[in-house]
Specification:
The protein has four helices and no strands. It is mostly helical. It has one domain. It is flat, with a radius of gyration of 17 Å.
Length: about 100
């Protein structure tokens, strides 16, 4: 596995455009969020009510990183809040059909 230092050096060397950087970083952050979700599920720590629990803290960190990248995607005019809201409404309708979450 490549260290984060090496990863960022490669990004700088490649001279990516800002929007390319956003895509690279967003995909990395999504991967890190997936990893902590899998660790939580694998270790049976699904109860995230304990705000001091290491898994909760790491989960919030990774979720916050993805949230930050989504905000940056909006600031760089890659996505609009309207488009994201429309997609969220669509997803909620699907969840009503296929899950008990909504």
């Amino acid at each position: 596995m490549v260290s984060k230092n090496t990863y960022w050096k490669v990004i700088k060397i490649m001279k990516l455009e800002p929007k390319q950087q956003l895509m690279v970083i967003l995909s990395e952050e999504c991967g890190e969020l997936i990893q902590i979700c899998q660790k939580i599920l694998r270790r049976g720590c699904v109860d995230l009510d304990n705000k001091d629990e290491d898994y909760y803290i790491k989960f919030v960190e990774e979720l916050g990183d993805v949230y930050t990248m989504i905000n940056l995607m909006h600031e760089w005019d890659i996505v609009s809040w309207d488009d994201l809201e429309k997609r969220a409404e669509y997803k909620l309708e699907k969840l009503k059909k296929w899950s008990d979450l909504v």
